[in-house]
């Protein structure tokens, strides 16, 4: 009788654990896809700059700016991450503006700044992830 109860309890725990695991996995996969979309958009901007397609640049940079305000973006809720996000948005908005003015050099420079924001934030994120493992 006691054994049966233990077995039922164990089965319950296992199922619960599995459900939580699956949910986390699903969430992180969605976040992963969301994050990867940034890369595709940035590549589109490079394409736009390369062939002087302002409409392409603008559509991609506006999408990136909007993404930075979405819930999926906010993996961390702290002032540093918020600062990184604000700097990124400022650079990506400057890129949109330069493209609207058909300023190719200005847009290219802004693109470099945007790329630096990507790298800066990732450096910060990696530091946080490593810290959270300790
Ligand atoms: C404000 C912070 C921030 C900025 C700016 C940022 N990212 Fe990210 N990025 C993240 C976070 C957070 C992750 C998820 C890290 C993790 O949990 O592994 C991520 C992950 C990624 C990944 C990996 C996705 C995967 O396969 O797991 C790519 C690719 C990526 N970002 C591209 C970019 C590009 C391109 C830019 C610039 C156009 C950019 N990111 C700007 C925060 C940022």
Question: What does this entry look like structurally?
Answer:
α1 packs antiparallel against α2 (54-67), α1 packs antiparallel against α4 (104-133) and α2 (54-67) runs antiparallel to α3. This protein has 134 residues and is an all-alpha fold. The chain has helices spanning 2-50, 54-67, 79-100, 104-133. The chain is elongated. 86% of the residues lie in helices and 0% in strands. The protein has four helices and no strands. It has a single domain (32-133), classed as Cytochrome c/b562 (Four Helix Bundle (Hemerythrin (Met), subunit A)), CATH 1.20.120.10. Heme C binds at residues 32, 35-36, 38-39, 42, 64, 75, 81, 84-85, 88, 114, 117-118, 121-122, 125.
